[in-house]
Every structure is written in structure tokens, then in C-alpha cells.
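Student: Please help interpret what follows.
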Amino acid sequence: LSSVGTYIVEYDYIAKSSDELTIRKGDLITDAVSAEDGWLQGECRGTFGHFPENFVTVS
């Protein structure tokens, strides 16, 4: 999971800081790229931020 892509959210995740995304099962995340270890960043519902890699699968 290291290139730009689109991901489908498999599990809900509530953002714990201002640079993270709150994502919900079934959401689509676009323009996602690798961030720090275990995290990706991308856009979901008009907001851009980080989200945990293990909560999503490649679309």
C-alpha cells in the first residue's frame, strides 16, 4: 500500500487529532498516499487527512 490509490473503509475510525480523518465503514478515500509507518493520507467526504492503513482495503 505505497502508491496513490482509492481505498474502501472497512472499519470506523474516529480522528484523535486535527490532521486525522474520521472515517466510516463503506466510505471511499481518494488520492491516498503513504504517510508515516502504518498510516496513509487521502481525501474523504471533502476533507484531507491521515487514517490508519489497517482500517481500509484497496478499491
Residues 5-58 form a domain with the SH3 type barrels. fold (CATH 2.30.30.40). The chain has no helices and five strands. The chain has a mean pLDDT of 94.
